[in-house]
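User: Quick sanity check before I run a bigger batch. Here is a single chain. Can you write out its predicted 3D structure?
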Amino acid sequence: MENPISKKISTLTDQADKARVGAANHGPTINLTQNTAVRIKADGDAVNTTAQDFAWSIADRIGINKTLTDAIQAGVTFARSVKGVLLKYCGAKYNPLWAPVGFKNSLEVPTDALGIKALLLSMADYFTKKPAQEVASLGITAAAAGDLRQQILDAEAALSAHDDTIATNKDGRDTAVEGLRTRLRGLVNELDQLIGKEARRWHSFGFNIPAEPATPGQPVNVTVAANAPGELHIECDAVSYADHYRFWTQPVGSIDAPVDAGSAKEPSLVLENLAGGSQWNVSVSAVNHAGNEGPRSASVQATVLAQAVA
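Assistant: Done. Predicted structure follows.
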């Protein structure tokens, strides 16, 4: 069975944790030298740190973007106030007098960053040339228009710089992930050289046994004994590479699918509290370390003993 190294960070770090424990416990015994527990931990820590840095930079962007959104909204509010103040100078409807203020073909105030920056620049220039129309008590001044525009520019610059940080953090995380994946692939190769493809010790590192088939074989020689009232004793031959066994029952004559009656590490199980005289079809399947289940055995029919009447 293959040992794929995950690209998903949560699964990858879980693989690394298991591999690190295996390397710490068995590395000295098998002479593991290249992909030691210390090196696996260092690469795993790098993934955790860089992933956190990236996650925090994504979260921090929300606040930085809000600063830009607030700056744009402040500029829009200012521009609408300016329009109200200048109605007595430029008229209630759009005409050429509004062009120097920054309005083009209508008195609609833009709400996007590009549009409001251009309008604020024109308003700053307008009030610089017509200071008598400023209303300082309302904050309608050339300086205010310039300041609001600068706030948008500063917020845009901060957001752009932070996006660069996000990109850098993502690159760092991706590099660390690939480094850990390379480390674990190296460990698989080193284990292959040191312990071979059939050793059960692979499981101690969280890996599948390479020689193990994708699914266990079909259990054979299933026996079901009614040794005591209300009980069925199920056994079968051990299956290579089985981690545990599942036992299935179906009432004789039923058209319903067999149900999972229990599982055990060993190829045997005792079913209890069954109705005396009831008849059952019983089968067994094997499950490997990876959780892959093999085919069920042929079913065996059995009748439950009834309690003896005194």
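The longest strand covers residues 279-287.

User: Great, the batch can go ahead then.
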